[in-house]
Amino acid sequence: MYVAVKGGDAAIEAAHRWLAHERRGDPALPEITALQLREQMTLAVDRVMAEGSCLDRDLAALALKQSRGDAVEAAFLLRAYRNTLPRFMAAEPLDTGAMQARRRISATYKDLPGGQVLGPTFDYTHRLLDFTLAAEGAAPSVPEEDAEGTGPMPRVTGFLTGEGLMRAEAPDDGEAPPDLTREPPSFPASRPLRLQALARGDEGFLLGLGYSTQRGYGNAHPFVAELRVGEVEVLVEPPELGFAISIGEITVTECQMATQFAGSREEPPQFTRGYGLVPGQNERKAMAMALVDRALMARELGEEATAPAQDEEFVLLHSDNVEATGFIEHLKLPHHVDFQSELEKLRSIRRRWEAERVAARKEAAE
Amino acid sequence: MATRPEWISVLARASAEEMESLAGTFPPYRRLRGPETGLTMLRGRAGGDGAAFNLGEATATRCTVALADGTLGHGWRLGRDRRAAEIAAVLDALLQGAEGEAWQARVVAPLAEAQRAAREQQSRRAAATAVRFSTLGTMR
Amino acid sequence: MKPGFHDLVLDAQSCFRAAMEAMARPGRVQEIPPTEGLPNGLEPAAAALLLTLVDADTPLWTDAGEEARGWIAFHCGAPLVRPGEAGFALVTGALPPLSRFRDGSDEAPQDGATVIVQVQDLVPGEGWRLSGPGIETKHRLRVNGLPEGFVASWEARRGTFPRGMDLFLCSGTRLAAMPRTVRIEESV
């Protein structure tokens, strides 16, 4: 129960001014700009953008600055801002097959058309703190291949679907997919609804769930069939033009996770794919999303669903960090009346308990 | 010569400064809609090629203008740069007109070339990180 | 193509304020600033309501002509649908039977349609006697241009509350609202 309380205006004002001061830090040091964050804290910005479900790196950088680097608070700010904007239209589905990939690897094939392209990765770094970064340095140079760039990179899953060893995706029925931002989720949830929820879900929550599926809670033995990071075109078809136009590019990370499926009466044993698609560069989340997506297919595939990652209500209703933080943090709000009533109830139970004990002792003594 | 969808795509990726410095001054026009910023829902496909799902909303800005002769121009781009959307709309209208080819040569061609070079550079950087295995041929 | 609001934010805000006042005080006439250069068949108050309330998320049905439909699609972005699928409707000719519009469900009464009707005239102080939430005792309004039998069908549908539909009556730059709670008595 909530009770409106008055007062505290001056305290709130003072608290917010102190907050602004803390945000700024030591005034002897130059203030960081949102542009610097956008360019140099790229992965933090990408995370905020994905979880705030508002794909705009400048806004995400500003939110991160305002929130003092608190990613969840920044996602909250982005969601709030997003709600002030009208939606023009939906774009055509992104063609990740035509991505201009900066990175593309497969753990299932060593040699594959288009090659294994490492791109700007933390993999193979030694995870030793680099103290030269503590000083300012010149911009590092990037090696370039002289002759030509990368060639076409067909989907790895295509090799297996071609052989009939990978379960084909259900074809698109042309219907507009369900939209969490317009309708609350209902269960059982369709795969498009699950993927939308996972794409904006909390990275840490999905990472833990994805990990749990490999530790026996969901019995998955996944392979990274393909992981790619790069730019895809955004196409829209405004009615005033009547034809599709490309209005820019966004960076996305895509993961195809192959997992064996024992088969059923109708379907032969084959690989199935869990799918991860995340705005920005974030392969940890794309991989975790793919694992959880696959775990959530248990019902459709007739597998036994006993693990948390296979329970769609559990996963979908707890993966959104803005929602989760709203509920957890609301416990800070005044619950004075609630608490007073609990306190009174406890006192009365306690009196009864004590009276009964006294009575029992007396009885025993007699 | 670029087609209309091609030049719209090139202008959507150019900054306001780039377009202005190439274009110089514009004839008079009036705004019909915007420039206004809103959202475009981006979609992916399950498994990359299956049913569509909503990935998240991206900011987008659009503008529609009319030249004195009534020609309409539309500017659309990701992000929130209203000035760039308006300039792109004016250029879209001019590119459809009698002087269209001259505008293409002056504005669209150099922008398209710069954008192509940037893509090319990224592709070359990626190629430099392609792994060359020293063994064994394919595993299929 | 004709333009929409001169100042998207300020004009939409002041129109929203008028629409809210109208809904909060059923039958009281509100005034919208005049606009020039509207498409054929569209009057300022109805046009301003569309620009303020209708967007790509609100399917619309209208009987208006080609030019007005193109203008609505361009400025509001609303998908044009059949009456039974519409969240909003714009009626420029004869008002169709109310039963053709959505009235929501008991779980989601907000899904009932909002119907914007262009009428010939709104005359306060005479005609209908209106009562209900937002009206202290009685309010009077004469509406010229609604079909015969409108009051009877309105009153018949009022029994399904919380389901129902809400009306905006517009004439030139003037508008009045008839939320689903309003009770109409014909004057004798």
Q: What class would the helix/strand composition of chain B place it in?
A: alpha+beta
Question: Would you count the extended β strands of chain B for me?
Answer: 3
Biggest pleated sheet of chain A = 4 strands, antiparallel
Whole-number tally of structural domains of chain A: 2
Largest sheet of chain B: 3 strands, antiparallel
Number of helices of chain B: 4
Side-by-side strand order of the widest sheet of chain B: 1-2-3
Radius of gyration of chain B: 20 Å
Q: What would the average pLDDT of chain A be, to the nearest integer?
A: 93
List low-confidence stretches of chain B.
none
* Spatial strand sequence of the major β-sheet of chain A: 3-4-5-6
Describe the structure.
The complex is a heterotrimer of chains A (366), B (140) and C (188). Chain A is of the alpha+beta class and 366 residues long. Chain A is built from 13 helices and 6 strands. Chain A folds into 2 domains: 75 residues, no CATH class; 191 residues, no CATH class. Chain A has a 4-stranded antiparallel beta sheet with strand order 3-4-5-6. In chain A, a hairpin with an 8-residue loop joins strand 5 and strand 6. Chain B has one domain. Chain B contains 4 helices and 3 strands, in the order H-H-E-E-E-H-H. In chain B, helix 1 packs antiparallel against helix 3, helix 2 packs parallel to helix 3 and helix 2 crosses helix 4. By secondary structure, chain C is α/β, with parallel strands linked by helices. Chain C has one domain: Bacterial phosphonate metabolism protein PhnH (Rossmann fold, 3-Layer(aba) Sandwich), CATH 3.40.50.11310. Chain C has a 6-stranded mixed beta sheet. Chain C has a 3-stranded antiparallel beta sheet with strand order 6-5-9, covered by helices on one side. In chain C, helix 1 packs across helix 2. Strand 2 of chain A pairs parallel with strand 1 of chain B.
